[in-house]
Design brief:
single chain, alpha+beta, Ribosomal Protein L25, Chain P, RNA Polymerase Alpha Subunit, Chain A, domain 2, 2 domains, six-stranded mixed beta barrel, four-stranded mixed β-sheet, 4 helices
């Protein structure tokens, strides 16, 4: 399999000052790591790198690098280990390349794509995707652009797991086979709170309303008793006064 071809050069000036000079000249600084070799400061053309990226694999693109410097060149198979992008201009400011062996597995994360329309969704359920990326191990030439799984047969309450994936030869998923990938769940019931409106002419229920009526009756009786006592007291006082006058 042919990999993306990019030429990189050994960077003579290292450090922040050297990186600024490289960017000032319209190039991008980087470092080449891996395979127990000493890190090599490099420089490359940003446009060439971007054009060489696989449109689907993107960061999982495998490169056939030509490292030039000191009057010699070296062919290196590598991938992008890390890339720094300017937050405003979105231009690449630094890239770390990782040397790899074309005959040995590498670990990468591949996008997971759901295909088809689940039966449960037609019945009113909601499709939930648990994972959007799948960590896998594969030789560089066997890295897929994405992994697809058909959700058409999913009913409400059903789920698909890692064990349901159909993988190409030479591809291993680095997840538990029981790990859920997608499921169809029942729609959440809407909670509707209804406040009971007062009904005209309704009989008060036992409890608080009846208690209030009883309390009102008790208060009325107490008031009547107090009034009667007061009236009786006044009548007694008048009678006693009349007796004294008669004497």
């Amino acid at each position: 399999m042919d990999f993306a071809k990019v030429t990189i050069e050994v960077r003579k000036q290292s450090g922040k000052g050297g990186a600024r000079k490289v960017r000032g000249a319209g190039k991008v600084p980087g470092v080449l790591y891996g395979r127990k070799a000493e890190p090599v400061p490099v420089v490359f053309d940003e446009k060439t790198l971007l054009k060489s990226l696989d449109k689907e694999k993107r960061r999982n693109t495998v490169f056939s690098l030509t490292l030039e410097g000191g009057g010699s060149s070296e062919a290196i198979t590598a991938m992008i280990r890390d890339a720094q992008v300017h937050p405003l201009t979105r231009r690449i400011v630094h890239v770390d390349f990782l040397r790899i062996d074309p005959d040995q597995e590498v670990h990468v994360t591949v996008p997971l794509a759901l295909t088809g329309k689940a039966v449960g969704v037609t019945d009113g359920g909601n499709l939930h995707q648990s994972l959007h990326g799948i960590p896998v191990a594969a030789k560089p030439a066997a890295i897929p652009s994405r992994i697809e799984i058909d959700v058409s047969a999913l009913k409400i309450g059903d789920a698909l797991h890692v064990s349901d994936l159909t993988l190409a030869p030479g591809l291993r998923v680095l997840l538990d086979p029981k790990e859920a990938l997608a499921s169809v769940v029942a729609p959440k019931a809407e909670k509707v709170e209804v406040e009971a409106a007062p009904v005209e002419g309704a009989v008060p229920a036992e409890g608080a309303a009846a208690g209030e009526g009883a309390a009102a009756g008790t208060a009325g009786e107490a008031g009547a008793t107090a009034g009667a006592a007061a009236a009786g007291g006044k009548a007694g006082a008048k009678k006693e006064g009349g007796d004294k006058k008669g004497k």
